Amino acid sequence: DAKTTQPNSMESNEEEPVHLPCNHSTISGTDYIHWYRQLPSQGPEYVIHGLTSNVNNRMASLAIAEDRKSSTLILHRATLRDAAVYYCILEGGSGGSNYKLTFGKGTLLTVNP
Amino acid sequence: DSGVTQTPKHLITATGQRVTLRCSPRSGDLSVYWYQQSLDQGLQFLIQYYNGEERAKGNILERFSAQQFPDLHSELNLSSLELGDSALYFCASSLSSFGPPQHFGDGTRLSIL
After folding, report:
1. Tell me: the pLDDT tens digits for A93-102?
2. What whole-number distance in Å separates Cα of residue B84 and Cα of residue A63?
3. pLDDT digit string (tens) for A4-61?
4. What's residue A98's pLDDT?
5. Of B45, B55, B90, which is closest to A43 when you measure between CB atoms?
6. Percentage of chain B with pLDDT > 70?
7. Cα angle vertex A24, ends A84, B106, to 5°?
8. B45 to chain A: which residues are within 8 Å by CB?
9. Cβ-Cβ contacts under 8 Å for A69 (sequence gap 6 or more)
């Protein structure tokens, strides 16, 4: 199964951009890249996903390398409420016992005031 | 508020016992997913149901079972409980049968004594 590698932790200052990296060198051609975050004492929250092209939404941007072996979640202006564990996830397969849903260990983002 | 409701929030029981965790998906969502989050294993996908039918199966033990009812709520049954089953169990939902979930509940914390 394709796996992801993320730094264990990162630190940022409030109102500065944050770039959270994820390596997925064994990604297959049909795997989507999803990002979730988990705030303290809450369930995970969907952030963004993409396949090949860069994606933007109101929460963040996702930059995907041309070879798709890595991606970067970009928070344009970090706030204290962005402090969370960020998970980079590959999703592929077609259901049944071969369904692939591999979570990275996540990056703990600390935002300093 | 994700719209996904999980009950109970906390559950304390003993080894060998059986428990049932309940999940009501976000209104309009047809897919329900179950995840287990423990300190040493991270977030693990267990099983997915779509409109009452099993859609995908992950790392779910044979001692665990789940079902989705006609009203779309779901139950996760855990039997012959072991100390290692202590974890946070998350339910999530989405409209589609494909891809990871969009909305997570706040989880049920299961403690085995």
Report:
1. 555 444 556 6
2. 38
3. 899 999 999 999 999 999 999 988 888 889 999 999 888 999 999 999 999 999 989 9
4. 44
5. B90
6. 100
7. 30
8. 99, 101, 103
9. A23, A24, A25, A27
**Dihedral of CA B24/B55/A86/A19: which sign?**
negative
Strands A70-75 and A61-64: antiparallel
Structure tokens at A107: 């990056």
Cross-chain residue pair B48–A99, CB shorter than 8 Å: yes
Q: Does A113 touch chain B (CB under 8 A)?
A: no
pLDDT, averaged across chain B: 93
Nearest CA-CA partner of B57 in A53, A96, A6, A27:
A96
Task: Look at B2 and A43 and tell me if their CB atoms are within 8 Å.
Answer: yes
Q: How far is CA A85 from the centre of its chain?
A: 10
Are B42 and A106 an interchain contact pair (Cβ–Cβ within 8 Å)? yes
B94: tokens are 């989405």
CB contact under 8 Å between B45 and A97, yes or no, is: no
Residue B85 dihedral angles phi and psi, to the nearest 5°: -85, -5
Measured in angstroms, the CA of B16 and the nearest CA of chain A are apart by 27
Please answer yes or no on whether A43 and B101 come within 8 Å at the CB atom. no
Mean of pLDDT values over B46-57: 92
> Which residues of chain A are within 8 Å of residue B105 when distances are taken between CB atoms?
43
